[in-house]
């Protein structure tokens, strides 16, 4: 089974036009993936390629347009390159070995430092000459660097080793493993999701099963219609029940009050993002006004159905819950829309197909603009009266939600 994109280390090749990024990208992979030309600006949109890089494991390499691209179209390409940085776990800053350090490199390094992305400077095309002054400058900055040429396989191997050496495994809270112990029964309520291909479960459900097995717990998987009989048939009381958010009302009715209950989306909010910040976003809902713009953001493009969660259900539920009418805009893809500041609320998907760093960066962007943000599961549970019960496994989150409720009463 192919490793999901969300679990791959993302390595970005970035630099000015004609610095040798695409040639290096191809050499690193060992095949011709990116188009290479002497004409500046050959790469227009980011190019993605997955591979295995030991000892890191599965990685995705990203080739990008030059940061010094000119003209109106060139500026759009450059902007796209900088927005792609948010996806990177490691950066390879490519400069011609006989070139100069300019404000373009300085702006890239500033952005990498701000995003806390480790990077290595690759001085390419050393066979065309080496500017020793450039090398000394990089040394003075104490930047990790390599001098290389795509015609020298040994130097490319050296870059692979160097990138692997600076790779750091990003912190990622468990999905469920820290909430259970060996021997615990964990009931996973899994409605058949029409958007999941036949024979498949959606990502958070698969992750939960795997983490239960890793913890030597016993996952019991059932549909919502069979939940009551499942609970009655268990001799041992389950440690936890986890359900799909859309089935929360039916499940909550069947799960005794003394049995901890949460949703896959709440678990995913902690695992992939910032659960506390996403819960804080709930405080904005009662203050929304008629006609305000609300962004529903999906990190992936998927086949939409007649009763789509983003396009039909959430808008309907929110308008029924508030008694107001809003202007909902649906945006799918790896980046936010450009005019983000116009929205009064962002409702984000669980982010199961993107990395934690990407999701955290999306939350940071919203926070920097003062825009409240929630995820699907948190707002669905809230609108269906399942809060604070679904926060029971997380005392700090439950306390923050209580503060929100108290503030709204005063």
UniProtKB/TrEMBL annotation:
Residue ranges constituting the G domain according to the UniProt record: 11-125
Hydrogen maturase F dimerization domain segment(s): 175-273
Domain of life: Bacteria
SUPFAM superfamilies according to UniProt: P-loop containing nucleoside triphosphate hydrolases
InterPro entries: FeFe-hyd_GTPase_HydF, GTP-bd, HydF_dimer, HydF_tetramer, P-loop_NTPase, Small_GTP-bd
Domain Hydrogen maturase F tetramerization: 277-393
One GO BP: tRNA methylation
One GO MF term attached to the UniProt entry: GTP binding
GO cellular component, one term: cytoplasm
Annotated PANTHER family: TRANSLATION INITIATION FACTOR IF-2, TRNA MODIFICATION GTPASE GTPBP3
The protein's name: [FeFe] hydrogenase H-cluster maturation GTPase HydF
Natural source organism: Mesoaciditoga lauensis
């Amino acid at each position: 089974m192919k490793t999901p994109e969300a679990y791959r280390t993302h390595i970005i090749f970035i630099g000015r036009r004609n610095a040798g990024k695409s040639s290096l990208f191809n050499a690193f992979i060992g095949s011709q993936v990116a188009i290479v030309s002497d004409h500046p600006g050959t790469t227009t949109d980011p190019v993605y390629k997955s591979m295995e890089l030991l000892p890191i494991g599965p990685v995705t390499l990203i080739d990008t347009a030059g940061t010094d691209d000119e003209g109106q179209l060139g500026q759009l390409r450059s902007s796209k390159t900088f927005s792609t940085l948010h996806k990177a776990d490691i950066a390879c800053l490519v400069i011609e070995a006989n070139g100069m350090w300019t404000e373009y490199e300085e702006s890239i390094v500033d952005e990498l430092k701000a995003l806390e992305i480790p990077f290595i400077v690759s001085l390419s095309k050393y066979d065309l000459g080496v500017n020793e002054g450039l090398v000394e400058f990089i040394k003075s900055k104490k930047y990790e660097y390599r001098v290389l040429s795509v015609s020298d396989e040994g130097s490319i191997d050296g870059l692979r080793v160097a990138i692997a050496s600076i790779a750091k495994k990003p912190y990622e809270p468990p999905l469920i493993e820290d909430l259970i112990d060996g021997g615990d029964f964990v009931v996973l309520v899994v409605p058949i999701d029409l958007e999941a291909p036949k024979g498949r479960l959606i990502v958070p459900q698969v992750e939960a099963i795997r983490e239960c097995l890793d913890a030597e717990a016993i996952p019991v998987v059932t549909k919502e219609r069979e939940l009551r009989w499942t609970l009655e048939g268990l001799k041992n009381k389950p440690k936890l029940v986890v359900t799909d958010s859309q089935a929360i009302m039916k499940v909550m009715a069947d799960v005794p009050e003394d049995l901890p209950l949460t949703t896959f989306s709440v678990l995913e909010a902690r695992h992939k993002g910032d659960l506390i910040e996403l819960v804080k976003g709930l405080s904005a809902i009662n203050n929304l006004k008629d006609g305000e713009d609300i962004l529903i953001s999906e990190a992936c493009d998927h086949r939409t159905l007649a009763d789509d969660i983003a396009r039909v259900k959430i808008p309907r539920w929110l308008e029924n819950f508030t008694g107001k009418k809003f202007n909902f805009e649906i945006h799918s893809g790896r980046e936010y829309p450009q005019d983000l500041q116009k929205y009064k609320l962002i409702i984000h998907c669980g982010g199961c197909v993107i990395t934690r760093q990407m999701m955290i960066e999306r939350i940071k962007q919203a926070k920097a603009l003062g825009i409240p943000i929630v995820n699907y599961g948190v707002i669905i549970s809230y609108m269906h009266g399942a809060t604070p019960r679904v926060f029971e496994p997380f005392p700090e989150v439950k306390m923050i939600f209580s503060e929100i409720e108290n503030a709204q009463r005063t």
